[in-house]
Amino acid sequence: MGTLLLNPIAFSIGGLDVHWYGLILGAGALMGLLLAIREGKRFNIPQEFFMDLLLLGVPSAIIGARIYFVAFKWEDYKNNLLDIFKIWNGGIAIYGALIGAIICAVIFVRRRGYNFWRIADICAPGLIIGQMIGRWGNFVNQEAYGGPTTEAFLRDHLHLPSFIVNQMNVAGTFHHPTFLYESLWNLVGLLLLFVLRRQKFLRAGELFFSYFIWYSIGRFFIEALRTDSLAFQGASWLASFINGLWAPMTWFGFEQGYLAPTYGNVRISQLLALLIIAAAIVLIIVRRRTVKDLPRYGDPIVSTRSREVESLASAAPSEQSAEGLNTKEEHTPNEPEKSQAPKE
């Protein structure tokens, strides 16, 4: 069977080609925005707030994703600095995108007077649904796939539909559809977040941490299937430790994607996933033990700027009343002096 490729270009306007990848990423961002707006209504947060956050967060995410990728591939860019800006040639990293978006969100949310953790909780389902949908852009572009496998494994073992199996036939060799694995993992994670955010025990920030824990668990196991991972040469014990944690995947018939020994022996995304999981769990425990009166997820969310406006508004009538009273006192005519009784 020959390679069956989908046309990555959805349509053209004049000389401008509009790619499916961009449309799919846009659809993911839109769905994430709608989820955030809907949940934000429960807390009386205006939808314009989330729209502004998205408009600033998307370019920040792209910049962060590119910086992250270039930093670990500096040898390929140090002599061709202009290539750093050619993101249309590929080369972005999801963890870098998250870092860029979070930095932007921290600044923006605080300037609007909200608590970052409360807003991050609301946005967590939107993040994971955006990633769930966005991975299908990799499917159309036939990229970010895993190592070689057999058609029988995809059709008979995983029972995948033909349109996915055929698209994973790259130059005559079938590959693991890692985009699909991650997309399905995120779908389960989305449902999990929906359930968690209605639980009374959930505290501020913990839904956001739960998103990172769930996503990173899936990313750890799926990343090892890929053949395009960013990697570095780490200690042999570290590589053995990570490979040992991944070993259960072999029970289900999976094998790690090829990683050239000269390129590295530790996949950066796998190591980062483990660090994020550990950090999130530690933060949940420490915050519960050290932060007094840690708000619950369902508690009201109030902007400090709104409080300032309310304070000014409530103070204004009092000041006007005081001014009126002073004016009245100033214009009150003096009472006539009583005549003194004649002395005897």
TrEMBL record:
Q: Does the keyword Chloroplast apply?
A: no
For whether the record's keyword set contains Glycosyltransferase, the answer is yes
Localization, per the record, is: Cell membrane
Query: What InterPro entries does the database record attribute to this sequence?
Result: Lgt
Q: Name one GO cellular component term.
A: plasma membrane
Q: State the EC number(s).
A: 2.5.1.145
The pathway to which it is assigned is: Protein modification; lipoprotein biosynthesis (diacylglyceryl transfer)
How does the UniProt record describe the way this protein sits in the membrane? Multi-pass membrane protein
Reported function: Catalyzes the transfer of the diacylglyceryl group from phosphatidylglycerol to the sulfhydryl group of the N-terminal cysteine of a prolipoprotein, the first step in the formation of mature lipoproteins.
Protein family: Belongs to the Lgt family.
| Protein's UniProt name | Phosphatidylglycerol--prolipoprotein diacylglyceryl transferase
Native source organism of the sequence: Paenibacillus faecis
